Every structure is written in structure tokens, then in C-alpha cells.
Amino acid sequence: MMQRLVVESPLGPLVLRGDHDALVGLAFARRGAAYGGDEGGVAGDAARRLSEYFAGSRSGFELPLRFERGSAFERRVWNALLEIPYGATTTYGELATALGEPGAARAVGAANGRNPIAIIVPCHRVIGAGGRLTGYGGGLPRKRALLALEGAAAADASRSPQLSF
Question: Is 137 a catalytic residue?
Fold first, then answer.
């Protein structure tokens, strides 16, 4: 049975979806989303770990994840994102090369944009060439805030993060 849980975060409401086996979705909700839902299972575990992450006491999530949709390439990108360490960044081009697809930086960017499990599958750790912050489904202020929270040395991450929307 699929569960849905909406929780508050410093970046605004988050919608978590999962079942008792795996987390399948984490997205930024619009303001006014109804909070609450099934706090058990993996979604509840994820909510607790996200709270610790935002408090600065957690750098990894150790949760079972399942990608229910996406092409084989997208799934390869999403799994590669899980390998980017907390506090580190890589570029779209570097990620494409690591996947054995040099020249596929735009395709990596498109796959990042379709990441179904934001924050936990850390697409925010992928930046543009030269350290530029580019593209993020949750908006660049959120990307900047996540990188600043993690202490990443991305060029634009040094600006004051705004953690409340």
C-alpha cells in the first residue's frame, strides 16, 4: 500500500511517497499543502532522517529507494547521484563522463530534472561547468541552501542561504 506524508522543512513543505519497502518519491510541495499522512513505514523514516539532515546531524540517509519510472539512462544517472559524497559537488559533464557517456552533459541535466526523490538522491550536488549553479527543480535558492547546509564549496553556494520560503 502506497503512503503519502507531507512534512515541513526549512525549504518548505516536502511530499514523501513510499510503501513499507521503499521510498519512491520526495518532492517540494506548494505552500498550503495539507500536512500529515501515514508516518509509518519508509516515508516516516525518511521524514525523521530529513529532520536530522536539516538540523546538521545527519549526512546520509540509508533508506531503501525504488525508482518506479524513468529510462535506463535516467536510472543510471539517479544511481550515480547517490555516489556523490555529502559536501561535494560534480559537474554535469563530469557525471556524464563517469557514466561512460562523454558529451551527454545535457542528457544528464535532463535526467537530474526528472529525479523523483529530491534531496535524498542528491541532484542538488551537480553544478554547471566552472562551479556555476544551474538548474534545480526546487529552484536555485533551494539548491544554494542545500549546498550551503552541506558545506559544499560551489561558487554561488557561499551566498547567504535562505532556508525558509
Answer: no
pLDDT tens readout for residues 8-59: 999 999 999 998 899 999 999 987 777 788 788 899 999 999 999 999 999 9
| Stretch (H or E) spanning 1 | none
- Cell numbers for 27, please give them: 518532492
Cβ pair 134, 128 in contact under 8 A:
yes
One of 123, 133, 146, 152 is an active-site residue; which one?
123
- Helix residue ranges per DSSP H, 4-139: 41-54, 72-81, 92-98, 105-113
CA 52 to chain centre: 15
CA–CA distance, 114 with 36 (Å, rounded to integer): 25
pTM of the model: 0.89
DSSP 10: T
CA distances from 62 to 53, 55, 118, 162 (A): 12, 17, 15, 27
Angle of CA points 123, 129, 134, to nearest 5°: 50
